[in-house]
Protein backbone atom coordinates (compact mmCIF):
# COMPACT_ATOMS: atom_id res chain seq x y z
CA UNK A 1 0.00 0.00 0.00
CA UNK A 2 2.83 2.41 0.76
CA UNK A 3 3.74 2.56 -2.95
CA UNK A 4 0.37 3.97 -4.00
CA UNK A 5 0.37 7.32 -5.78
CA UNK A 6 -1.59 8.97 -2.97
CA UNK A 7 0.81 8.02 -0.18
CA UNK A 8 3.95 8.69 -2.22
CA UNK A 9 2.61 12.10 -3.27
CA UNK A 10 1.44 12.91 0.26
CA UNK A 11 4.85 12.09 1.69
CA UNK A 12 6.46 14.36 -0.88
CA UNK A 13 3.97 17.18 -0.29
CA UNK A 14 4.76 17.13 3.43
CA UNK A 15 8.36 18.04 2.57
CA UNK A 16 7.22 21.14 0.70
CA UNK A 17 6.21 24.51 2.20
CA UNK A 18 3.06 23.79 4.21
CA UNK A 19 -0.27 25.65 4.06
CA UNK A 20 0.40 26.53 7.71
CA UNK A 21 -1.55 29.10 9.71
CA UNK A 22 -3.47 30.27 6.63
CA UNK A 23 -5.12 26.84 6.50
CA UNK A 24 -5.47 26.48 10.27
CA UNK A 25 -7.22 29.80 10.70
CA UNK A 26 -10.04 28.74 8.36
CA UNK A 27 -11.41 26.60 11.20
CA UNK A 28 -10.51 28.91 14.09
CA UNK A 29 -13.12 30.36 16.41
CA UNK A 30 -13.55 34.13 16.63
CA UNK A 31 -11.16 34.21 19.57
CA UNK A 32 -8.45 32.48 17.52
CA UNK A 33 -8.29 34.82 14.54
CA UNK A 34 -4.89 35.91 15.84
CA UNK A 35 -2.11 33.54 16.85
CA UNK A 36 -0.64 34.49 20.23
CA UNK A 37 3.01 34.26 21.11
CA UNK A 38 4.00 30.94 22.66
CA UNK A 39 4.90 31.46 26.34
CA UNK A 40 8.10 30.06 27.77
CA UNK A 41 6.16 27.82 30.15
CA UNK A 42 4.08 26.18 27.40
CA UNK A 43 3.79 22.41 27.67
CA UNK A 44 4.43 20.26 24.61
CA UNK A 45 2.20 17.64 23.03
CA UNK A 46 2.33 15.42 19.96
CA UNK A 47 -0.57 14.09 17.88
CA UNK A 48 -0.91 11.79 14.88
CA UNK A 49 -3.19 11.97 11.88
CA UNK A 50 -3.21 8.23 11.10
CA UNK A 51 -4.22 7.06 7.63
CA UNK A 52 -5.31 3.60 6.53
CA UNK A 53 -7.19 2.08 3.62
CA UNK A 54 -10.57 0.50 4.38
CA UNK A 55 -13.10 -0.62 1.78
CA UNK A 56 -10.86 0.96 -0.87
CA UNK A 57 -11.22 4.37 0.79
CA UNK A 58 -8.72 6.35 2.83
CA UNK A 59 -9.67 6.90 6.47
CA UNK A 60 -8.15 8.75 9.40
CA UNK A 61 -8.57 8.10 13.12
CA UNK A 62 -10.37 10.54 15.39
CA UNK A 63 -11.07 9.87 19.04
CA UNK A 64 -13.61 11.24 21.45
CA UNK A 65 -11.99 11.94 24.79
CA UNK A 66 -13.61 10.76 28.00
CA UNK A 67 -15.52 13.49 29.84
CA UNK A 68 -14.85 12.33 33.40
CA UNK A 69 -11.39 13.89 33.85
CA UNK A 70 -12.04 17.28 35.46
CA UNK A 71 -8.41 18.33 34.94
CA UNK A 72 -8.68 17.86 31.16
CA UNK A 73 -9.57 21.20 29.54
CA UNK A 74 -10.54 19.27 26.38
CA UNK A 75 -12.60 16.50 28.00
CA UNK A 76 -15.33 15.06 25.82
CA UNK A 77 -13.94 16.68 22.68
CA UNK A 78 -12.91 15.06 19.41
CA UNK A 79 -9.18 14.85 18.78
CA UNK A 80 -6.35 13.08 17.04
CA UNK A 81 -4.61 10.31 19.00
CA UNK A 82 -1.81 11.90 20.99
CA UNK A 83 -0.82 13.51 24.24
CA UNK A 84 1.90 15.12 26.29
CA UNK A 85 5.49 14.92 25.10
CA UNK A 86 7.83 13.32 27.63
CA UNK A 87 11.59 13.85 27.79
CA UNK A 88 12.20 10.12 27.38
CA UNK A 89 10.47 10.22 23.98
CA UNK A 90 13.56 11.87 22.53
CA UNK A 91 11.65 13.34 19.56
CA UNK A 92 8.16 14.68 18.98
CA UNK A 93 7.67 11.95 16.40
CA UNK A 94 8.38 9.28 19.01
CA UNK A 95 5.96 10.99 21.36
CA UNK A 96 3.19 10.89 18.77
CA UNK A 97 3.83 7.20 18.10
CA UNK A 98 3.93 6.29 21.80
CA UNK A 99 0.73 8.16 22.60
CA UNK A 100 -1.05 6.64 19.60
CA UNK A 101 -0.10 3.14 20.70
CA UNK A 102 -1.25 3.85 24.26
CA UNK A 103 -4.55 5.45 23.27
CA UNK A 104 -5.80 3.29 20.38
CA UNK A 105 -3.61 0.17 20.49
CA UNK A 106 -1.78 0.52 17.15
CA UNK A 107 1.84 -0.51 17.66
CA UNK A 108 4.38 2.21 16.92
CA UNK A 109 6.44 -0.25 14.86
CA UNK A 110 3.53 -0.69 12.45
CA UNK A 111 3.20 3.02 11.69
CA UNK A 112 5.16 4.78 8.96
CA UNK A 113 5.52 8.50 9.59
CA UNK A 114 5.05 10.41 6.34
CA UNK A 115 5.89 13.86 7.66
CA UNK A 116 4.87 16.64 9.99
CA UNK A 117 2.42 19.51 9.81
CA UNK A 118 2.52 22.99 11.32
CA UNK A 119 2.69 23.15 15.13
CA UNK A 120 -0.21 24.89 16.88
CA UNK A 121 -0.38 26.59 20.27
CA UNK A 122 -3.55 26.07 22.33
CA UNK A 123 -3.94 28.93 24.84
CA UNK A 124 -6.74 27.38 26.93
CA UNK A 125 -4.56 24.44 27.98
CA UNK A 126 -1.15 26.06 27.34
CA UNK A 127 -0.03 23.25 25.04
CA UNK A 128 2.17 23.64 21.98
CA UNK A 129 1.08 20.77 19.74
CA UNK A 130 3.25 19.07 17.13
CA UNK A 131 1.12 17.16 14.56
CA UNK A 132 2.38 14.32 12.38
CA UNK A 133 0.88 12.31 9.52
CA UNK A 134 1.35 8.54 9.48
CA UNK A 135 0.04 5.48 7.67
CA UNK A 136 -0.47 1.77 8.35
CA UNK A 137 -0.78 -0.91 5.67
CA UNK A 138 -3.67 -2.85 7.20
CA UNK A 139 -7.20 -2.30 8.45
CA UNK A 140 -6.71 -1.69 12.18
CA UNK A 141 -8.29 -3.50 15.08
CA UNK A 142 -8.41 -0.75 17.67
CA UNK A 143 -7.91 -1.23 21.39
CA UNK A 144 -8.90 2.06 23.05
CA UNK A 145 -7.48 3.11 26.40
CA UNK A 146 -10.77 3.33 28.29
CA UNK A 147 -9.54 5.89 30.81
CA UNK A 148 -8.74 8.34 28.00
CA UNK A 149 -10.78 7.37 24.94
CA UNK A 150 -14.56 7.15 24.98
CA UNK A 151 -14.94 6.30 21.29
CA UNK A 152 -12.86 5.81 18.16
CA UNK A 153 -14.35 7.35 15.03
CA UNK A 154 -13.12 5.94 11.71
CA UNK A 155 -13.40 8.93 9.41
CA UNK A 156 -13.31 8.77 5.58
CA UNK A 157 -11.14 11.48 4.10
CA UNK A 158 -13.75 11.93 1.39
CA UNK A 159 -16.31 12.93 4.03
CA UNK A 160 -13.99 15.60 5.41
CA UNK A 161 -13.44 17.00 1.91
CA UNK A 162 -17.16 17.56 1.35
CA UNK A 163 -18.07 21.23 1.75
CA UNK A 164 -21.26 20.29 3.60
CA UNK A 165 -19.16 18.70 6.36
CA UNK A 166 -17.89 22.16 7.36
CA UNK A 167 -20.56 23.83 9.45
CA UNK A 168 -21.02 26.56 12.08
CA UNK A 169 -22.69 26.32 15.48
CA UNK A 170 -22.76 27.89 18.96
CA UNK A 171 -21.04 25.79 21.62
CA UNK A 172 -21.48 25.94 25.37
CA UNK A 173 -18.33 24.81 27.20
CA UNK A 174 -18.29 24.74 31.00
CA UNK A 175 -21.14 27.25 31.13
CA UNK A 176 -19.60 29.64 28.59
CA UNK A 177 -21.13 29.99 25.12
CA UNK A 178 -18.86 30.46 22.11
CA UNK A 179 -20.69 31.94 19.15
CA UNK A 180 -20.36 30.84 15.51
CA UNK A 181 -17.82 28.10 15.93
CA UNK A 182 -16.66 26.47 12.67
CA UNK A 183 -16.52 22.69 12.88
CA UNK A 184 -16.47 19.46 10.93
CA UNK A 185 -19.66 17.44 11.27
CA UNK A 186 -18.36 13.86 11.43
CA UNK A 187 -21.29 11.48 11.76
CA UNK A 188 -23.04 14.00 14.00
CA UNK A 189 -19.99 14.65 16.16
CA UNK A 190 -18.56 18.16 16.44
CA UNK A 191 -14.86 18.37 15.54
CA UNK A 192 -13.76 21.88 16.44
CA UNK A 193 -10.97 23.91 17.99
CA UNK A 194 -7.33 22.89 17.61
CA UNK A 195 -8.19 19.53 16.06
CA UNK A 196 -10.31 21.19 13.38
CA UNK A 197 -7.53 23.70 12.71
CA UNK A 198 -4.91 20.98 12.25
CA UNK A 199 -7.36 18.94 10.20
CA UNK A 200 -7.94 21.96 7.97
CA UNK A 201 -4.24 22.06 7.12
CA UNK A 202 -4.18 18.31 6.46
CA UNK A 203 -7.07 18.63 4.03
CA UNK A 204 -5.38 21.50 2.18
CA UNK A 205 -2.35 19.23 1.74
CA UNK A 206 -4.59 16.40 0.53
CA UNK A 207 -6.17 18.71 -2.04
CA UNK A 208 -2.72 19.59 -3.35
CA UNK A 209 -1.90 15.87 -3.62
CA UNK A 210 -5.13 15.17 -5.49
CA UNK A 211 -4.30 17.86 -8.03
CA UNK A 212 -0.78 16.46 -8.45
CA UNK A 213 -1.93 12.90 -9.14
CA UNK A 214 -5.00 13.76 -11.21
Give a written overview of the molecule.
With 214 residues, this protein is an alpha+beta fold. It has one domain: Nucleoside Triphosphate Pyrophosphohydrolase (Alpha-Beta Complex), CATH 3.90.79. The protein has 5 helices and 11 strands, in the order H-H-E-E-E-E-H-E-E-E-E-H-E-E-E-H. Strand 1 and strand 2 form a beta hairpin. The protein is globular, with a radius of gyration of 16 Å. It starts with a helix and ends with a helix.
Task: Name the features.
214 residues; alpha+beta; Nucleoside Triphosphate Pyrophosphohydrolase; 11 strands; 34% strand; globular
Topology summary:
Layout: H1 5-13, H2 21-24, E1 43-54, E2 57-65, E3 78-79, E4 82-84, H3 92-104, E5 112-116, E6 120-122, E7 127-135, E8 149-156, H4 157-161, E9 166-173, E10 176-186, E11 189-191, H5 193-213
Parallel strand pairs: 1-7
Antiparallel strand pairs: 1-2, 1-4, 2-3, 2-8, 5-7, 6-7, 9-10, 10-11
Helix pairs in contact: 1-5
Q: Could you give a short description of this structure?
A:
With 214 residues, the protein is α+β, with helices and mostly antiparallel strands. It contains 5 helices and 11 strands. The longest helix has 21 residues.
Instruction: Report the mean per-residue pLDDT as an integer.
Output: 92
- Domain module tally: 1
Helix residue percentage:
10-25%
Distance between the termini: 18 Å
CATH architecture: Alpha-Beta Complex
For the report, how would you describe the main beta sheet? 8 strands, mixed
- What's the CATH topology name? Nucleoside Triphosphate Pyrophosphohydrolase
Task: Name the overall outline.
Answer: globular
Individual helix count: 5
Helix vs. strand class: alpha+beta
- The CATH homologous superfamily name equals Nucleoside Triphosphate Pyrophosphohydrolase
